[in-house]
């Protein structure tokens, strides 16, 4: 059960007394006399299955419009054959559709896995040519809110593949085929007649346009930069680090970061002796406003846990065919897919990293706070999720991305006193690797597969985590 707790703006979330009494709290920033936003209802009304779910958001006052859309198209049988009443091959072909840049396939029951192959090909707006067939990662059940939480039991959550970034397109063809055999744990294959999940739909996501450049930080800090209430609440929880409406949180050197943390600790624990903290320099972080998050998409309010004891590293499995200048669009697409298509309250990851090493704020609630994500099913409490944009099963992750993981974890884990090279215990919330309630010993910097039986974050990225741990510890001064 989630107990609502309201905490003020001053200080980092792990030091506020309001969080210490409960593992989870729901809060909205109370700074600047903003009206408090109540959490969404426990069981929101599920939207009717419309053929076209387009959402355009228009800010109040001077806030710019961030038009984006999600078009949801039901798949149709491609064969007369039926397995338990369901066609084992489904798909569709469409030309001349509203422009989109990211695709995925969803289905009704989030507890049902898609045992099969999903492939898409798309037509480029720029060239008018069709791509080759591309595989879409089907095993996405390992991401999501922990069982029994308000987010997982909202009634809006759906099963889904990973999203795939395809670039601006105006035509699509998709085919979904059920497996005819499965591989058992000992490596043998056996025939299967498992049907495809019910309610298969293709999601075509337009991430929307880039946000126009904001005014000066000084003006934004005084006026809110024309932001509406939802935008102000997201920006306000980072007000200790950047002005309201800022597109980025600037980097801070190690001494400045240490002074910042020691000052905060002195404020929170009066008269306590202060030891020199192990913490890495604060890295530059692009805020949600900086990558153009439409704050009207997510649920209102923020959800926190007690602390951050571990970081789980992921890949987005959205492909590697993007440029660094496109990264904000990719993140907007993933955000929209997580919320509008999969039914989550916000983007699942706490932070996102691109191939150039840029770090982006993920789920709303404050970059210094213990924000509960939906990244590692069963281990979202007292942890954070970092996703590198790309697919790294066979492709090597860029060195800049691995360095960014080290910089981010050295700083964020340092806020909570965690050693990047150390071990910690997390209690499982339930999953396919560890039963609910089991205390599991994990690396402080773990891969997604350490908490759930999955390929994520890909073999090549997973192999770089040892380097990230050592580098992060060095940044902390250990």
TrEMBL record:
CDD domains: PGRP. One of its GO terms (molecular function) is zinc ion binding. It comes from the Bacteria. SUPFAM superfamilies: N-acetylmuramoyl-L-alanine amidase-like. Residues 283-431 form the Peptidoglycan recognition protein family domain. GO terms for biological process: peptidoglycan catabolic process. Residues 181-200, 205-226 are annotated as: Disordered. Gene3D superfamilies: Peptidoglycan recognition protein-like. Residues 181-195 have a biased composition (Polar residues). Belongs to the N-acetylmuramoyl-L-alanine amidase 2 family. PANTHER family: PEPTIDOGLYCAN RECOGNITION PROTEIN (PTHR11022), PEPTIDOGLYCAN-RECOGNITION PROTEIN LC-RELATED (PTHR11022:SF41). This is Peptidoglycan recognition protein family domain-containing protein.
